[in-house]
Specification:
Serine Threonine Protein Phosphatase 5, Tetratricopeptide repeat, single chain, 290 residues
Length: 290
Amino acid sequence: MRITYFFILFIIISCSTQKKGFEEYDDLLYTGLIEYKDQEYKSALNHLEQAIEILPKENEQSYFYAAAAAFHLNQDEKAKNLLKSALENTYINQDYFNNFEEFIPFKNKAIFNELDENFSKNTKTFYSNLEHPEIFKELDSLLDADQKVRTDGSTTEEMAKIDSTNIVRLIEITKKYGWQDKGQLLLWHQRGNYKEQNWVWNYFKPFINKEIERGKIRKSFWVQYEEFENVINEKYQLYGMYPQNYDMFPLKDPKNVDKRRDSLGLQPLWVMNKIYDWPLPENYDKNYSL
């Protein structure tokens, strides 16, 4: 089952700040992305810049597409400023930046060489703007350990030990500093007993639910856990979170899937298809629009 890509993508569009900000940001972001796909670059740039203004630290996607739209409009200086702002305000993997598909037609521009040479300098600004940069870097270390034990031939027991150590530390960090988005993958590894009452979920469920009520975390936070339960135990999907696996786990009640997604603040499946090429399930009805 190809879970990783779609889980990471879900994380990219599921960060946290204000509830009203989420809703306004998403409406502007996805409107801009749809316009970009339709080559309506002027209106796309306008909507994406409005999204950035609402949540400038949300993620790099709004900056990257806005910059690409600016390049298409021959507004190179604006594109340059957007890219610098992206590096200073969001955490960006350098390989992802270098290989972003929409930048390929413009890679001959000097700005890309300049940004590549000064990548570390610009990211230092990002770290200096963090409230707790030491915690951000510690979570990087926890994630490195998480991935290492999954790729170096370690045993299942060794993997479980790392997961246990990491989740203990994540609870300590969360108690002192609040929820950290980078902890999502560490918590995801506990999904196998999501429905159980244990020391992990007895802490995180009430904490996350309270933060959702306060508007600090998206109301879609639990959807990937619920969908995982659906495909493992019921062999179907309710939200279309595994679009590559409709043959194995068909979508239940496809007519109303976008209503269910909307109730959790998720975009309609047709939007995910248009922007990210997600396959659509059989009998899907495009019954929602932006």
